[in-house]
């Protein structure tokens, strides 16, 4: 497997509870290097665009409102097999199904307020990184 980059969000439920550092530590412990990081607050339009793939799902409105409710921390993670490795460290979408030691098992509050986002494939990783960062902001 090659070195990859993936896109991560530390979500409002986590920034609100001062879990930014604890979650970043999980990435670093797993061998993922944080090559870009910034704290921002999304507009509703940005949240709707970012989660556009879910626009027909019943939870879409709730998801977008949650994502704009507090600041988030957007990051680019780099490492061997970074996309799959990050999904592993995150744990299952629903914290009730997440494995022990994963971020969602330890920190998530519910399936909606589940502390982190991570890209699911190389194409989405590239799109999501480009949505939030310019090339100059990525420092490997
Ligand atoms: P993931 O974030 O694990 O990639 P996803 O892409 O299927 O999961 O969904 C995106 C986000 O939408 C997820 O992190 C939380 C929210 N979500 C998904 N399923 C949900 C549900 N059944 N009820 C409420 N929110 C949900
Ligand atoms: Mg997803």
From TrEMBL:
Cofactor(s) for this UniProt protein: Mg(2+)
UniProt keyword annotation of NADP present: no
Cellular component annotations (GO), alphabetically ordered: cytoplasm
Function of the molecule: Major role in the synthesis of nucleoside triphosphates other than ATP. The ATP gamma phosphate is transferred to the NDP beta phosphate via a ping-pong mechanism, using a phosphorylated active-site intermediate.
Domain (Nucleoside diphosphate kinase-like) ranges: 3-140
Gene that encodes the chain: ndk
Catalytic activity of the protein: a ribonucleoside 5'-diphosphate + ATP = a ribonucleoside 5'-triphosphate + ADP; a 2'-deoxyribonucleoside 5'-diphosphate + ATP = a 2'-deoxyribonucleoside 5'-triphosphate + ADP
Entry EC no(s): 2.7.4.6
Provenance organism: Octadecabacter ascidiaceicola
Identification of the protein by name: Nucleoside diphosphate kinase
Subunit structure: Homotetramer.
InterPro entries on file: NDK-like_dom, NDK-like_dom_sf, Nucleoside_diP_kinase, Nucleoside_diP_kinase_AS
Enzyme kind, highest EC tier: transferase
Binding site for ATP: 11, 59, 87, 93, 104, 114
Family note: Belongs to the NDK family.
Annotated Gene3D superfamilies: Nucleoside diphosphate kinase-like domain
Gene Ontology BP term (one): UTP biosynthetic process
Molecular function GO terms recorded: ATP binding; metal ion binding; nucleoside diphosphate kinase activity
SUPFAM superfamilies: Nucleoside diphosphate kinase, NDK
Keywords annotated in UniProt: ATP-binding, Cytoplasm, Kinase, Magnesium, Metal-binding, Nucleotide metabolism, Nucleotide-binding, Phosphoprotein, Transferase
Active site per UniProt: 117
Localization (cell): Cytoplasm
Highest taxon above the source species: Bacteria
């Amino acid at each position: 497997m090659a070195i990859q980059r993936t896109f991560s969000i530390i979500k409002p439920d986590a920034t609100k509870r001062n879990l930014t550092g604890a979650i970043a530590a999980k990435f670093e412990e797993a061998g993922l290097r944080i090559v870009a990081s910034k704290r921002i607050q999304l507009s509703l339009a940005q949240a709707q665009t970012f989660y556009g793939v879910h626009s027909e799902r019943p939870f879409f409105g709730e998801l977008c409102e949650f994502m704009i409710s507090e600041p988030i921390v957007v990051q680019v993670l780099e490492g061997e097999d970074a996309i799959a490795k990050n999904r592993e460290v995150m744990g299952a979408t629903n914290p009730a199904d997440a494995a022990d030691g994963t971020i969602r098992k330890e920190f998530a509050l519910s399936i909606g307020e589940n502390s982190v986002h991570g890209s699911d494939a190389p194409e989405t990783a590239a799109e999501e990184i480009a949505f939030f960062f310019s090339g100059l902001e990525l420092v490997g």
